[in-house]
Design brief:
The structure is a single chain. By secondary structure, the protein is an alpha+beta fold. It has two domains: about 100 residues, Urate Oxidase (Roll), CATH 3.10.270.10; about 130 residues, Urate Oxidase (Roll), CATH 3.10.270. About 25% of the residues lie in helices and about 40% in strands. The protein is built from six helices and nine strands. Strands 1, 2, 3, 4, 5, 6, 7, 8 and 9 form a nine-stranded antiparallel sheet that branches.
Length: about 260
């Protein structure tokens, strides 16, 4: 059959990224407590396309996803990136795997168990020289209490749910649970899936006694990451979905 993708293109314009987006695929990821966890990922895969080719072979991206089985690991990311370059005649390759990750948490007082879901992402790329770059990312819901509101009010203070996005490059493997815990410890209080009345009391008082601006949150996280020799690069942002404003509060720090 005629291979249209391999036909020559005469516009002389290379394409930086071409591939597939938003493919849902079952994966197995490492779980610190249970060993492994099954989840469903949304996957983006791209390669570069030289100026002389009309198109890439989209079906090959899906075929190569089997290389991620039986579990998603950093080693397998390196393998699939090189395979993408080989099978698609590309100089560079890029893959993004985004998935919900579930952690069982106990409520602070009643000890009621519930599952919290966190959005996690692994981003990998391999350039023309074969250098592989890997980034791990977690998105963590948090609670924050406004220090200014607490200071100027006769009683109470406005609080809101927020979201912290933490991306890291590292030398040795990092558990997603460790990154999530680091973020939660920097918030006014962490978020739970199940809370009884006794738990709500503790969470409310804990947050009220630990007010944080978004600036405080990202600085506290950045300070801990700067002291960690295993972290070679990081980017952290905090967004508060304000309860008394019609906008969000936002802060971001990216290391050198």
């Amino acid at each position: 059959m005629k291979d249209v993708q391999n036909q020559q293109d005469h516009r002389n314009i290379p394409i930086n990224k071409v591939g597939i987006k938003n493919l849902r695929y079952p994966i197995t990821v490492l779980d610190r407590k249970n060993g492994y966890q099954h989840t469903v990922a949304t996957i983006n895969m791209y390669v570069d396309l030289p100026h002389k080719y009309k198109g890439t072979h989209m079906s090959r991206f899906v075929e190569m996803l089997h290389l991620l089985q039986p579990e998603v690991s950093l080693k397998r990311f390196s393998i699939i990136l090189e395979q993408m370059k080989t099978h698609l005649n590309a100089a560079s390759a890029h893959i993004e795997v985004t998935f919900p990750y579930f952690i069982e948490k106990k409520a602070p007082s009643s000890k009621t168990r519930g599952l919290m879901d966190y959005t996690c992402r692994i981003i990998g790329s391999s350039d023309a020289q074969g250098k592989v770059d890997l980034i791990s990312e977690v998105i963590v819901p948090i609670t924050s209490v406004c220090p200014c509101s607490k200071e100027i009010s006769k009683y109470g203070a406005h609080n809101q749910r927020g979201e912290v996005r933490l991306s890291t490059r590292f030398q040795k493997f990092i558990w997603m649970e460790d990154a999530i815990e680091l973020v939660e410890e920097a918030a006014s209080c962490e978020v739970y899936s199940v809370l009884k009345r006794s738990d709500e009391k503790i969470v409310t008082e804990r947050a009220f006694s630990n007010p944080k601006f978004v600036e405080d949150i990202v600085r506290d996280i950045a300070k801990r990451l700067q002291a960690d020799d295993n972290i070679t690069w990081f980017s952290v942002s905090a967004e508060n979905f304000e309860s008394i404003h019609n906008h969000s509060a936002y802060a971001s720090i990216t290391s050198d």
